[in-house]
Amino acid sequence: MKRSLFTVVLFTLSFAATAYDGNALYEWAQANDRINNSSASGTDPLMSGMFTGFVVGISNYMIANDDICVPSSAKNSQAMDIVKNYLRNHPEKRTDDAVYLVNDAMRAAFPCKKK
Q1: Model-level pTM?
Q2: What CATH number belongs to 20-109?
Q3: For the chain, which residues make up each domain, given as ranges?
Q4: Which terminus in the chain has less CB density within 10 A, N or C?
């Protein structure tokens, strides 16, 4: 029974993590911009929250695993700006998995120094 439950949870988590591409992430980023510019409507608050949670969650995971070296003074809003700029500057990559796009953007912005 425990093994079945574990399999279901693992499948659900892996589906949720890979179900979105860069186009969805970019839509969420645009909703976040509209929220910040006080021009939000409809589902913008939900989509903005999806963007914030997605970017901050993946960034925190990367920090915890020493995949990126972020200064202690960095803010979550900086991570979101980095990902927004990456998506704007690389429209050809928006069909890629959203997790990989956040990963690529954050690694480019905050690489760890080689030891």
Answers
A1: 0.81
A2: 1.10.890
A3: 20-109
A4: C
